[in-house]
Specification:
Layout lengths: L1 E3 L17 E3 L22 H14 L8 H4 L4 H8 L7 E3 L1 H11 L2 E4 L2 E6 L2 E7 L4 H5 L6 E5 L2 E2 L5 H9 L5 E7 L7 E6 L1 E4 L3 E5 L5 E5 L6 H16 L6 E4 L8 H11 L4 E6 L7 E4 L11 E5 L6 H11 L4 E4 L7 E8 L4 E11 L15 E2 L10 H5 L18 H12 L1
Parallel strand pairs: 13-14, 14-17, 17-18, 18-21
Antiparallel strand pairs: 1-2, 2-19, 3-20, 4-11, 5-6, 6-7, 7-8, 7-9, 9-10, 12-13, 15-16, 15-20, 19-20
Helix pairs in contact: 7-8, 8-9
């Protein structure tokens, strides 16, 4: 989720020296939980790194915390921790492992089991299994309930604790105890964490020459994948698409650069998004360049309460430029921009909120979200294979959820709107 842009500086200089910058949006982990802003310990940081972090907060943080040059250099550890706790939920110190994981996600890679889990009725439930992942290979399914990790019961454990238990498994070997279909006898699955290549875009042909793409996250490769999938559908039909559904449901966001680029694919002109912050380089406006890949064909965008950040930028840009109709439920409402600031020798970093973004109409979606043109709330659907839902077929890998029992009424409405335009 990122756009290139932020800053490494020398503390001894008045003006920052820029050599590396990443403007970030909030990236939900593939375990389906929001990172705690202060999960990484700052208690053991050496004073030099504390001073460097303080310098960055003082210089680049979106809100002025009323620091003075004579004060922040002299902060002791306890004072620093109190200041650090005042930052917003998206600002975070990243150690070496967390920084590498962030780069991997941004480049469409992920090291893990390939599952997304959520706490449903106080049970750790798998809601998504990634294709070509260890979880997929051993037969884990959406709807499975994890009861133990490496023989340690996880009942009532927070999601981040469960994720850490999996991550800390010796030699990357993990044993999961699973309850499936309410059977009392748990199933045991042994699998290994490994690097997984993530596809950020999937497609499906619809009736009457229209198409469907699901954008799962906004990585450095999303623009290329969207263009490639649309070209493949047009080549299949032998003509331009007559309409397109863009599914952004459960999309946690991604890079600013990617969101802007994808929006630009479908817009002839107009403002896409603006960002505003205290630091001069945080104030930018992004406009569409001439050229619409669909040549004006109608678009319907699907969103839900888990559509966040970069997904909201795309939805709002297409809606407010009168390029698409939005169907679904109110989106997440994450309207701030994070920048990645390398620390020390570059193996750790500070992810710091440096700006807030505004839709083309000048509105902030922070805490509000994007309002759909057609509001339809529905029970969360499994996202293991959205193409299966479209075709109204039951996935062979997922006997827990039945598309006929849980019709995708948002998608049905989207297809209806396409046919009317």
């Amino acid at each position: 989720m990122i756009n290139t842009h932020i800053c490494q500086k020398k503390v001894s200089q008045t003006k920052p020296m820029f050599w590396f910058c990443l403007q970030l949006f909030f990236l939900l982990a593939l375990f389906g939980f929001i990172n705690n802003a202060h999960a990484s310990s700052v208690k053991d940081l050496e004073s030099q790194k504390i001073n460097e972090i303080l310098f960055n907060i003082h210089t680049y943080y979106v809100d002025d915390l009323a620091l003075h040059n004579s004060e922040y250099i002299e902060y002791n550890t306890s004072q620093f921790e109190r200041l650090y706790s005042k930052l917003d939920p998206y600002s975070k110190y990243l150690d070496k492992n967390e920084l590498n994981a962030l780069f991997d996600n941004t480049n469409g890679r992920y090291t893990g089991l390939g599952i997304e889990v959520k706490n449903i009725e106080q049970r750790t439930t798998i809601v998504k299994v990634i294709n070509n992942s260890p979880a997929k290979q051993v037969g884990l399914r959406a709807g499975d309930i994890i009861t133990a990790v490496n023989n340690q019961q996880i009942k009532n454990s927070p999601i981040d604790i469960v994720a850490q238990q999996i991550k800390d498994s010796p030699n990357n070997k993990v044993q999961l105890s699973i309850i499936r279909n309410n059977n009392l006898t748990p199933l045991i699955f042994n699998l290994s964490r490994k690097q997984i290549k993530l596809a950020s875009v999937t497609k499906q042909l619809l009736d009457a020459g229209s198409g469907y793409i699901a954008i799962n996250t906004f990585s450095n490769h999303t623009l290329h994948e969207v263009a490639l999938q649309i070209a493949a559908m047009q080549n299949h039909y032998g003509h331009a698409l007559k309409g397109l559904i863009i599914d952004l449901r459960d999309n946690p966001g991604g890079t600013l650069k990617s969101a802007v680029a994808v929006a630009d694919l479908f817009l002839q002109d107009g403002l896409i998004v603006t960002t505003k912050g205290r630091f001069y380089d945080s104030n930018q406006s992004f406009y569409a360049k001439r050229g619409d890949i669909l040549k004006g064909a109608p678009i319907v965008v699907l969103i839900n309460e888990n559509s966040a950040s970069a997904a909201e930028i795309l939805a709002a840009a297409l809606k407010e430029n009168m390029r698409a109709k939005i169907v679904g439920s109110q989106s997440f409402g994450k309207g701030s921009v994070q920048s990645l600031i390398p620390l020390g020798d570059g193996d750790t970093a500070l992810k710091l909120t440096t700006a807030r973004y505004f839709t083309p109409s000048g509105e902030s979606i922070e805490g509000i979200g994007v309002t759909p043109n057609v509001a339809i709330n529905q029970t969360t659907l499994p996202q293991t294979n959205k193409a299966v839902i479209i075709k109204n077929e039951q996935s062979q890998q997922n006997s827990v959820f039945n598309a006929e029992e849980l019709p995708d009424i948002q998608l049905v409405k989207a297809k209806q709107l396409l046919s009317m335009q």
